[in-house]
Amino acid sequence: MNGPSNQAIKRLISLHGWSGTVLSIFLYAVVLTGTVSVLRDEIARWSDAERHIVHPFGQPIYATVRRLSDQVPEAFRAQVRVEHARDGSLRVFFYEKRKIPGRGTQDFGRDYLLDPETHSILAARQGVAPHQRVESRAHELSHFIVDLHARLLIPGRLGLYATGVLGVFLLVAVITGILIHRHILRDLFVTERPGGRVVSLRDRHGLASVWSLPFSILLAFTGTFLSFATSLGLPIVAMSAFGGDIDRAFAAVTTPAKVENAAPADLADLDQVMADALRISGTYPRLLTIEDAGRRDARIVTLHRNGGNGAVRSHTLEFDGATGAFLRDRPLVGHEPSVGSATVALMSPLHFGDFSGLASRAVWLALGTVMTISVVSGMQLWLKRREDDPVWRSCRMMFAAVVWGLPVMLSGAAYGFFLSILGHDVHRGTLAGFLVSGFVVLVLSLRAATPVELSRVLRRMFAWSVLMLPVLRLQTGGVSWGEAILNNIWQVLLIDALCLALAVILLVQQRVQDRAAQNALNLAE
Amino acid sequence: MLALIAIFISFGALAALVQQDPKRARVFRQDARRVWLSSRALWLLCLSPSVILPFVAPFAHWVIWFGAITAGGWGLAYLRPGVLHRIRSALVQCEARMLQWRG
């Protein structure tokens, strides 16, 4: 079989290199933070283990929803959305569809944020889809990392566009990588040759890229889909077929038609529905919606984002709103089961890796690490091949600053979080920690003589800062290991152990490298 | 549990493949290793759970197995030849020093 010609391979190598190089720094940031955010729930528990975190749907909700329903205007009672809010609280939103001039159909109503355990009201607001949130110490740090991964801290849709484009670039790099690598199977077990030569870096990059290939494609594709689906895809559909009305377009795609029956009927017992949903899917839902409450044709729909019962796909379960009887597993997209809908249902669980508890997360963490190594080694290889060029030499310094600077900044965000716990504004504290450590990295980068020296300093700084994180956590009121064992808060032990292991590995590695460099110097002398 | 067994089987096969890979041996100037099973048989053993698991376990187990052998395969291949031997020697040295220190 004839492969691509030499000329074609040269072009592909160029495309592969440039697609990775142009946005490599941002790609690295997205891949690294994505790897860390696999453990977002564990980080949330670790960062504020004192507070008893309860799943909002772990408590009965029926009485609460009825109580709140009596407090809202009658017009808002028909449509209800009960949600596990991002800040860990229980969100109950009573609304109606309203035509807003220039904005199409919007959800207008009253939004309540409730304590997940006691269901006492934390915040309430009335308006057009009010996305209010309460400050939650437990979720601040993990949300910061997830925001950095999903939006690069860019607000609004622009952030999603940016990460979507990065996903496309990663896909291009992966596909061109397959085409230019002629000996994928033959090089499958060839590890990095010693000496820090071009061939060593090529081995390192090739090994990590080939082994992570299936998951690079999977994560790049699902990530691009998640970034673009609601920020770009749906608005385009809405503009082309629904006069720009995104809400109507969404409803048309996801809500099937039903036989109308406006006869009055009481709402089914939500707690019974929740128990049935838990039995069928194996997980608590992320969202429960009630459509046309108070009518005979009411529907209750529960959205379960991550697997459960050994399944990988998300579930959307539909119940009769008047009797509470289970009706069907509703397709996520479209009105009838289809390959497209089944594929969409796989996107979130496969991207987040949270479909099978700690086992799937551990595997996703390992895969993310290999992908990070692949991105970094690819860039190192690109720069090594161009080290004679002064422009690319300056890029080496920048790249060294980012590769070790970003972990330092993430660790700085954790420091900011813990130090601001006592002052209460953890949101600003986390961001301040991130920015201050970024400034420190910038100063160190400007003062460093060579990229190697900068990498060395930043690596050591990161190792020590991570080593001290468990100490800082304890000093700012965190639970001790003894308390964690007694109260079965294994997340504290896990993240502390990961911090210590990471620090020890980096420090030992640095010591070995320093010794090797010293020996080489002695030999030369 | 089934996924764990599958991962162990695949890891074992991968470790043997790493051990007897001819290009790896050539690159690191190693002597020819004893061949336990042919590469084809080892690959068959390594990938056999991909066919068996979907019939005996939920799909999530298959995905976990696939992810684990992908990341683990990289880990096995990443270790340079002789690293395990060096780690063992270092541990033996450590033990000897501790015994010496105890007197």
Automatic annotation (TrEMBL), chain A:
Q: Give the UniProt keywords, A-Z.
A: Membrane, Transmembrane, Transmembrane helix
Transmembrane ranges, per UniProt, are 12-31, 158-180, 207-229, 362-383, 395-418, 430-449, 461-482, 488-508
Concerning InterPro entries, the annotation shows: PepSY-ass_TM
One Pfam family name from the record?
PepSY_TM
Q: Which PANTHER family match?
A: BLL7967 PROTEIN (PTHR34219:SF3), IRON-REGULATED INNER MEMBRANE PROTEIN-RELATED (PTHR34219)
Q: What is this protein called?
A: PepSY-associated TM helix
Name its species. Tritonibacter litoralis
Automatic annotation (TrEMBL), chain B:
Q: What is the lineage of its organism?
A: Bacteria, Pseudomonadati, Pseudomonadota, Alphaproteobacteria, Rhodobacterales
Q: Which organism is it from?
A: Tritonibacter litoralis
Question: What protein is this chain from?
Answer: DUF3325 domain-containing protein
Segments crossing the lipid bilayer: 59-79
UniProt keyword list: Membrane, Transmembrane, Transmembrane helix
Q: Which domain of life is it from?
A: Bacteria
